[in-house]
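Running this now, will post back.
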Amino acid sequence: MTVSGLGGLASVGDRITLLRRDRTEIPAEIIGFSGVTARAMAFGSLDGIGSGSEARFPLFISPKAPKPGGTLRVSDAWVGRIIDPLGRPIDGKGPLPPGDIARPVRASPPEATLRARLGPRIDLGVRTMNLFTTCREGQRLGLFAGSGVGKSTLMSMLARNTACDVAVISLVGERGREVREFVEDDLGPEGLARSVVVVATSDSPPLMRREAAYAALTVAEYFSDAGKSTLLLMDSVTRFCQALREIGLSMGEPPATRGYPPSVFAELPRLLERAGPGIVQPDGTAGQISALFSVLVEGDDQNEPIADAVRGILDGHIVMDRRIAESGRYPAIDVLRSLSRTVPGCNSADENALTQRARAILAVYAEMADMIRLGAYKPGADPDVDEAIQLRPAIEQILSQGKHECARLPDCFAALRDALAETPIPEEGAAG
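Update: finished.
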């Protein structure tokens, strides 16, 4: 919509208030200009808004006025609550006590040269990730998966099991009926008790879906600055980009790559770089936001534009495979296509040797899988293949984990060590 009368007063990102015919208010944001006429987009339904409707904007801007993009007054009392992207409670538990400081939602990432280094490795509670994509405090990982592969279930496991003080969960464009199922069944009371959940469902306006990502980063930054070990889970970056696409196209931006305008790929690093290590304080401490961003891979194409852009920004990627899910092994993580850029630096030499050997065994079996199924491979022809056939079932058993099972990091390496210690049984007639 267009708003006149703001020439020389407003700027992109400023918040205004629209009044319906019944005088109820709708928050909106200025997203651009056409000459002296402002273009605005609402955070809610435009029912009751017509030509000549009133728009309100503060004429006198004081230093304490909200900055462009809005603010949130986060406090410790937000833990255990479910909120919308504007910081309003939607869990029926009463109002949210505001914090003392208004934090800008559209903040810049920390200065690169002032950021701390990554912290020690963090226990994620998921065996496959602890072993093959070991993560450090402040690291950012991408979770790449198609629809229906178990992505939300894996994220709920991380929210419950990761060794952190606070988890901030952003559900961007989530199906409305699945929100309660995720909170009550997947996350559970234990997970919710230490989490802040930011929700914008798929029927929300694009500004609300975009804001869900920014609000989650703002909440995570508050707890990180307070010295708490913070885990950020965002599901999903793809829907955040789809919201940006709607906003950009409504402004007249040309579609560049698969319908995404250039502004989407400019905004992605500004969002993702806000997570990670914070600025080193005078006392030598620094806040850390360990983050996992899910990417809904369209058509199971791991090289589609959003997946490709996110993979180049983050510190590692975890690939979930539909064929593994269909075989009944969950979480359906493809070990051979997943990696963490902090490995091998955060593990011991013995642990690295274990995981490298397990990867090699899985790679050998994957290469010969078709011949083994067809019976074209004869036992004894290749000792590496014989070893892979013998040890792969034990490794696959380790990779399988129930959604309510928690696997601590030292136990994961101990289980893998025991599995690889099994001696392959020579086939009858083979040289011994």
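Residues 349-374 form the longest helix (26 residues). More later if anyone needs it.
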